[in-house]
Amino acid sequence: MSELRFSAACERNKGPIVEVLSQLLKPQARVLEIGAGTGQHAVHFTEVLPGLDWLATDVPENLAGLNARIAAEAADRLAPAVALDVAHGPWPAGRFDAVYTANTLHIMPFELAPALFAGASQVLDRNGLLICYGPFQDDGAHSAESNRQFDLMLRSRDFAMGIRDTRDLDRIARRHGLIRQADIALPANNRILIFRRAQ
168-182, pLDDT tens digit by residue? Predict the structure, then answer.
C-alpha cells in the first residue's frame, strides 16, 4: 500500500471523528463526502460503521489516488469516488442523510463556501445534516495559539486560505436553509460543526 497517498492528520483524527459520526448517523444512512482526499476517512468510517452508504467525491485531479485506495482497501463496501468541484458541480443525483467534509473550508477560497452550503442544502434530505470538521474561529478570535499560527501559515502560502469564522459560516448556512445545531470540540483544537436542513 506504500504507493497510496497518505495523510498523517487523517490517521490521527479518524478515531475521534467516527465516534461522533456513530452518534449522529442512523444505520444505513446515505452520506456524501466532499473533498475525500486520500480516502482514509471513507475507508475507516465504513469499516467501523458498516451499514453506511458512503459516496466519496473530490476534484477531478484527485480522483485517481482516491479511487486507488478504495479499490485496494474497500472495494467491497465503497462505490468508486466521483468528481465534484463545488464551484461548478454537478452534484450527485439523489438525496442524502448527511453531507460530510473534513479540513476543506480552510483550504478552499472563502468565496466557495456559499457554493458548498448551497449544494449541500440541495442534496440533503429533510432534516439532513451538513457535518464540517476542522479548525474554526469565533467572532475573529482563535480558540488556541496553535490555530492562530496555523492560520498565519495558511495565509502566507495562499491568501485565499485561512481558518473560517463560525459567525460567517452561520450566516451563509442560514441563507441556504441550514441551521447550526451543535459544535463539538475534538482533539488538536479541531471541532465538528453540525448544520441541519430545516425543511
Answer: 999 999 999 999 999
pTM of the model: 0.97
193: which 3 cell numbers? 460543526
Q: Over the range 109-125, which residues count as b (16 or more CB within 10 Å of their CB) and which as e?
A: ebebbebbbbbbbebbe
Helix/strand/coil (H/E/C) assignment for every residue in 40-98: HHHHHHHHHCCCCEEEEEECHHHHHHHHHHHHHHCCCCCCCCEECCCCCCCCCCCCEEE
Q: What pLDDT, in 10s, does the model give residues 62-102?
A: 999 999 999 999 999 999 999 999 999 999 999 999 999 99
Q: Which residues contact 63 (CB under 8 A, 6 or more apart)?
A: 81, 82, 83
Structural contact between residues 195 and 171, judged by C-beta atoms closer than 8 angstroms:
no
Residue-range domain boundaries for the chain: 1-98+123-129, 134-188
Residue of 57, 63, 64 lying closest to 86 (CA atoms): 57
Segment (H or E) for 169: helix 166-175
User: What's the CATH number of domain 1-98+123-129, 3.40.50.150, 1.10.10.10, 3.40.1190.20, 2.40.50.140?
Assistant: 3.40.50.150
Give the closest residue to 55 by CA, choosing from 81, 28, 25. 81
Angle at 184 between CA 97 and CA 16, to 5 degrees: 80
* pLDDT of 5 above 60: yes
- Are β-strands 190-197 and 124-134 bridged in parallel, bridged antiparallel, or unpaired? antiparallel
